[in-house]
Amino acid sequence: MKELTFETLLAVFEEMFGRGLFWAMVAVAVVITLAYLYVLIRDRAMSMRKFLLAQLAMPFGAVAAVLFVQWITSSGFHDIGGPIDVIVLLGVAAAGAVGIAILVYTAQALMQGRQGTPVSGRS
Fold first, then answer.
1. What are phi and psi of 97, to 5 degrees?
2. What pTM value is reported for the model?
């Protein structure tokens, strides 16, 4: 591999996760991102309380992402061979942390309804 291209990355991820799982993860990420954008546009402001709770979930998302990648690739921490492996795992952990924060914030906002507006059925 002489150069890193987008097509090469897609091929590597499809090979690593399997075509079905990879594209399912991409679809879920797109749906969550669209829901997050919807919440931000709907509320026109971020709730710091929801944001704090979302940040508290970040370590769990980071650990879960690393464990998921270790499991899906049938490898373990004893297989870490050098600095690039550590950098990749840190990137996976960062992506998992950010992903779970967005998911938690979005889920809270969708369940609680619009800020400043009572949820239907409540007065």
1. -65, -45
2. 0.81
